[in-house]
Amino acid sequence: MSTNPPTTPNEAEKVYQQNKRLNLLLSETGAIYHEAAKRLGLADSVMKILYVICNIGQDCPLVDVVRLSGLGKQTINSALRKMESQGLLYLQSSGGRRKIVCLTASGQKLAENTVIRMIQMENEAMLNWTEEETDVYIELTQRFMRDFKDKIQNL
């Protein structure tokens, strides 16, 4: 597959339409996750934080929550403070200014009843895919993210 930019108006229009379709799919995917959070009784920010912790594992570095959640630092800070006041998690120092986000027993139970269920549903949705389809999807998604991130760095 070529990495050169489109050279004709028709190629440029095709890329535009494909990108538009991709962006709409990404937006719709975000809406599905929002609906899942709503049905599970979670704020989007809480769901995203729990999602990162469940995928990284207990004792999740705060820097990973910031990097992988897609949330702003202030939103993360507010959500963490609220979750901490609810007894769902605590922050532990990890040397210097580094912090680790740790779920309490209540936080683990909440994650099991919400985000872990959602992850299981994601896994079930992919069960109909072949291994090759899954590999291609992941490879192309990683490539798009890497290439797009490179373009953003040039802003």
Mean pLDDT: 93
Number of helices: 7
Strand-residue fraction? 5-15%
- pLDDT < 50 stretches: none
**Percent helix among the residues?**
over 70%
Taking all Cα atoms into account, the compactness measure Rg is 19 Å
Biggest sheet descriptor: 3 strands, antiparallel
Question: What is the terminal separation in angstroms?
Answer: 25 Å
Decide which structural class fits the backbone: mainly alpha
What's the helix-strand series?
A: HHEHHEEHHH
Compute the number of strand runs.
3
Overall geometric form? globular
Strand order of the largest sheet: 1-3-2
Care to describe what's here?
The protein is 70% helix and 8% strand. Helix 2 crosses helix 3. The longest helix has 31 residues, at 9-39. The two termini are 25 Å apart. The protein is globular, with a radius of gyration of 19 Å. A three-stranded antiparallel sheet has the order 1-3-2. The protein is built from seven helices and three strands, in the order ααβααββααα. The protein has 155 residues and is mainly α. Strand 2 (89-93) and strand 3 (99-103) form a beta hairpin. The model has no long low-confidence stretch (mean pLDDT 93).
